[in-house]
Automatic annotation (TrEMBL):
Protein's UniProt name: Mitochondrial glutathione transporter SLC25A40
Solcar repeat positions: 1-113, 121-205, 215-309
One Pfam family this sequence matches: Mito_carr
One GO cellular component term: mitochondrial inner membrane
N-terminal signal peptide: none
InterPro entries named among the record's database cross-references: MCP, MCP_dom_sf, MCP_transmembrane, Mtm1-like
Annotated membrane topology: Multi-pass membrane protein
Keyword field contains Repeat: yes
Alphabetized UniProt keyword annotations: Membrane, Mitochondrion, Mitochondrion inner membrane, Repeat, Transmembrane, Transmembrane helix, Transport
Domain of life where this protein originates: Eukaryota
BP term (GO), one: mitochondrial transmembrane transport
Length: 324
């Protein structure tokens, strides 16, 4: 029944521009950190300017700095062409199949098993099953997630990306391909736990309200959209940290800083707040929400539709076999 959800190619194609914009917003840094200097040239003379207040809304706007979601869309299309909005689509399509199959299969099996074992606490089974299923799926596809993030963070060829990955592997070993796995798990595991728990409760509440045993397509769609929206907002800071960690691949090696810069999730989070302010932890809020809400709704609706269809087919087959 997972084949219904294992090939969401049209969905991925439609939401990839939002992913690109979200990552660009998250990867950009404050060009005016407090106490730093920058050189401004007006065509006649050079000026050395000191940033006193660290305010990103200074009198000079650094090139490539996006002020919001719409501004990012416009600037990316103007400077790099409309094709750049679909950067990283190939690795996204490649990792969609194993990620979806591992995730949904693991969740289904774990949830059924945990409900039998948890007794009176069976209602909490989706929370634990969702978290455990996400750990496996996120770990398997982490290298592909890294490649996608690098491609979407700035315009670059596959040749340049291959060189960066080779340099990172030579310098830091194969573990560098799992760069950003920590914040990815801190983002995805709570997201998955909250999503499945709220989804199952929301679906059950809607069934009770409309007095039906089986949820309709609309019920699963609404439950998926709402639970996905809540989970995406709560886990957004870890998504920002994950993006920063993965974008750093190659940059630290080029500056010989790979062994000097602390890159734990907490230290990166502290550095983001110190340089760009607390609001930087919620960069890309709008494109992430616009992407995640419908994606969760469509995926879970297809999943439930597929389950219901094949359950009916199996029941009919068993009935036919018993009659013959």
């Amino acid at each position: 029944h997972l084949n219904q959800c294992a090939h969401p190619k049209m969905l991925l194609f439609s939401v990839t521009p939002l992913d690109v914009v979200k990552i660009r917003l998250q990867a950009q840094r404050n060009p005016f950190p407090k106490g730093k200097c920058f050189v401004y040239c007006n065509g006649l003379m050079d000026h050395i300017c000191v940033c006193d207040n660290g305010n990103s809304k200074a009198w000079y706007k650094a090139p490539g700095r996006f002020s919001g979601t719409l501004d990012a869309f416009v600037q990316i299309v103007r400077s790099e062409g409309i094709k750049s909005l679909w950067s990283g689509l190939p690795p996204t399509l490649v990792m969609a199949v194993p990620a979806t199959v591992i995730y949904f299969t693991s969740y289904d099996q774990l949830c059924a098993s945990l409900r039998l074992r948890m007794g009176d606490h069976a209602q909490e089974a989706p929370l634990l099953a969702g978290a455990l299923a996400r750990v496996g799926a996120a770990t398997v596809i982490s290298p592909l997630e890294l490649i996608r993030t690098k491609l979407q963070s700035q315009k670059q060829s596959y040749g340049e990306l291959t060189y960066l990955i080779r340099s990172a592997v030579q310098t830091e070993g194969w573990r560098s391909l799992w760069r950003g796995l920590g914040p990815t798990l801190l983002r995805d595991v709570p997201f998955s736990a909250m999503y499945w728990y709220n989804y199952e409760r929301g679906k059950r509440w809607l069934c009770e309200r409309y007095r039906t045993r089986e949820p309709t397509f609309t019920m699963t769609f609404v439950s998926g959209a709402v639970s996905g929206s809540i989970a995406s907002i709560v886990t957004l800071p870890f998504d920002v940290v994950k993006t920063r960690r993965q974008v750093e691949l190659g940059e630290l090696q080029a500056k010989n800083l790979s062994s000097q810069v602390r890159s734990s999730t907490l230290s990166v989070m502290s550095r983001i707040v110190a340089q760009d302010g607390f609001s930087a932890l919620f960069a890309g809020f709008l494109p992430r929400l616009i992407k995640v809400a419908p994606a969760c709704a469509i995926m879970i609706s297809c999943y439930e539709l597929g389950k219901a269809f094949f359950r009916k087919q199996n029941q009919e087959r068993r009935t036919f076999t018993s009659q013959t």
